[in-house]
Every structure is written in structure tokens, then in C-alpha cells.
Amino acid sequence: MRFFFKTDYNQDINLFRDGVDRFWYGLLILALLVAPSVLEDFYLGEISYVFVLSIIGIGLMLLTGFTGQVSLGHAAFLGIGAYTHAVLLSHGAPFPVSMAAAALLSAAVGVAIGFPALRLTGIYLAIATLAFAFIIEHVLIKWESVTGGFKGFPVERPEYFGITITDDIPFYYLSLFCLVLAVLAALNLLRSPTGRAFIAIRDSEIAAQSMGVNLARYKTTAFAVSAGFTGFGGALFAHKIGYLAPDAFNILLSIQLLLMVVVGGLGSIHGAIFGAMFVGALPQAIAIGRDYLPETIARQPGLEPGLFGLILVFFILFEPYGIYGRWLKVKLYFSLFPLYKKATFKKQKSYTKSERNR
After folding, report:
1. Is residue 326 part of a domain?
2. What is the three-class DSSP state of 114?
């Protein structure tokens, strides 16, 4: 078992805890860089999809996992980013400009939604964001002159220096690069006063307000930042699916995104990535499992959303800390073995003094 002795205040805000972490993360990046030379195109496409989901998951994690604001409408921000990027590309905008515009427009819409929802919490906030998702879906359907309505909207395949960046290998590296940028941006945000204010609001709004945190300002900022990350991921998502249609950004997608952060582990950037790996692999697992199920069950049209809901319920009941929380328990088990006690992670009621009279 390793013990960490802090001798510098900067150790609390360093990106890596020690040299061991730097080694393993560096090895992971190296493995991802050489993966296209040993993997087939199908697996590269699936990994790229996980990268895109991870960027979107980081955006939702900043809002739900670190600020405590539940959202069932992030498919709308994803759609705004995807359509903005695709429309600008069709009008000849450079690829980086259209991606930046997708993130900025999504963030602006996040401010417009976050400010009126300041007085809402819990299930009421979830209902409000769900209504917003329905509104955006209908806007995408009715605004045919821009979005194409039900006919859909083709996504351009930009080419630079003779390389089409949406091909398998270039898109893999592009998604990896964007994911690294998103992770670094999120980690630096969480180390800043703004990120610490987000966490304070999540833990106790009353305590945060008593310490001088402006709830309206930081909740609105959380919505804007979360929507910006999601819109940024939406630009890559547009290239992944290749052809945009309003029904691709429905309530089921919002539930999948929420499932991703809950199953991965709320309150952790690692959790967003683990959740993206889980959600990205689950449809393939279901498709394989259909071959071994009775025909009457395998042909049920609602099998996939039903399993998503069932898995979400099971994780909330039996593993509320998600996959990343389970991984931490496994690491601690082997660190303390054979002195590990079963009650180490026994769930106990906890609250701050400011919440005792609520």
C-alpha cells in the first residue's frame, strides 16, 4: 500500500498525483497512439465513438456530477452542436471555426436555459430540461429551410492536404486529440475557484451561499460550460453518424447520456470515460446477446431502452458510486489484503450541519 506525504501546496492541484500516475497515463496515451497500426477499422470506429461519448459525458458530468444539477435534455445541446457544425461546413466555414461555433452556440443556449431554471432542483429541474429537449426536437423538425426537417441533413466530409479527416484513422486521431483537450480543460476548470464553487453547490447550496458563493452565477455558468462541452462533442458526433435527423436527438439519447455518467460514477472525470465505454459497448453486447435469446424476446422492439433503464436502477440501488467507485474498492481491497474489512465502504447517512433543519 502506498502512502502520499504532501510537502507542497501545489500537490493539491497537480494534474498527476505522482510519477507513477504520469507513467501509466503516458503508457495509455502511447497505446492509443499506436492502436490504428494493430486494430481493424471496425474497432477503430467503435473506439472513436467512445472518445466522442466521453467528451459529451464530461460535459454532463460537470453539470450533474460536480454541480448536482440533473439534466434530461442534453440530447438537445448535442443536436444544437451537431447541426451548427454541419450547417456551417455546408456554407464553407473552416473545420476548426465550425467546431468552435458549435460549442459557443450550445453554451449560449445553455445560459438561456440555465438562468430561468435557477429556482428548480431535483425532479423539477429534470422535467424542465426534458421539456427543453422536446422543444429543440420540434424546432429541428419544423425549421426545414436550415435543418432539412425529417428529410435530414448530410454532413460534409472536409478534406485537408488530400486527407479526408472523417475517414477511420484520421477521425480516430481527431477524436483522441479532442478528448485530451476536453479532459485537460475540465481538470483545470475543477482546480479553479469556479470548479470548487460547483462542488460546493453540489454538496450543500446553503453552506455554499453562506460562504459567499453566488448560486445564480455559478449554476448558470455550469449550464453554459456543460452545454459547451456537449456541443463540442456534438460536432464530432455529426461526423460519426454522417447524416443528421431530428429523431437522432430524442429523449432516449438523453437517458443514455444520463445513464453514462451515473453508471460510470458521478463526481469523477474517470467516471465519464468509464461510462462512455460502457454505453458504447452495450449496444454491441445486446446485438450479440439477441442471437442466444428466445426469438420472442430477441425481437422485442423495446429491449435496448428497457435494459438501459434496468441497468440504471440496479446501479443506483447496488453501486451508487458507479464503475469507477467499484474500481476504487477493488484497488483498496488489494492494497489492504488480508486486512480489508467488509464495512469499509458501508453506506452511511451524511449531511452538513446547515442541512439538518431542512
Report:
1. no
2. helix
> Model confidence over 33-70: pLDDT tens digits?
998 888 888 888 889 999 999 999 999 999 988 988 88
Phi-psi domain of 148 (left: phi exceeds 0; alpha: psi -120 through 50; beta: other)? left
Task: Note the pLDDT of residue 351.
Answer: 45
Determine how many CB atoms are found less than 10 A away from the CB of residue 67.
23
Give the range of the structural domain holding residue 170, as residue numbers without chain letter. Answer: 40-258
C-alpha cell at 307: 435494459
The answer as to whether 343 is a domain residue is no
State the cell numbers at 214.
Answer: 453566488
Which residues, at least 6 apart from 323, have a Cβ–Cβ distance to it below 8 Å? 263, 264, 265, 271, 274, 275, 278
The DSSP string of 171-213 is HHHHHHHHHHHHHHHHHHHHHSHHHHHHHHHHH-HHHHHHTT-
CB-CB neighbours of 32 under 10 Å: 16
Number of domains in the chain: 1
The verdict on residue 305 lying in a domain is no
What whole-number distance in Å separates Cα of residue 264 and Cα of residue 277?
9
Q: Is residue 287 part of a domain?
A: no
Model pTM score: 0.86
What pLDDT digit, counting tens, does each position of 325-354 carry? 888 888 877 777 776 666 665 555 554 444
Beta bridge partners of 244: 153
Distance CA(140)–CA(170), nearest Å, equals 29
In 3D, which of 252, 220, 221, 303 has the Cα closest to residue 79? 252
Which residue in 114, 96, 108, 113 sits closest to 235, CA to CA? 96
| Paired strand residues for 26 | none
Task: Provide the 8-state DSSP code for 91.
Answer: T
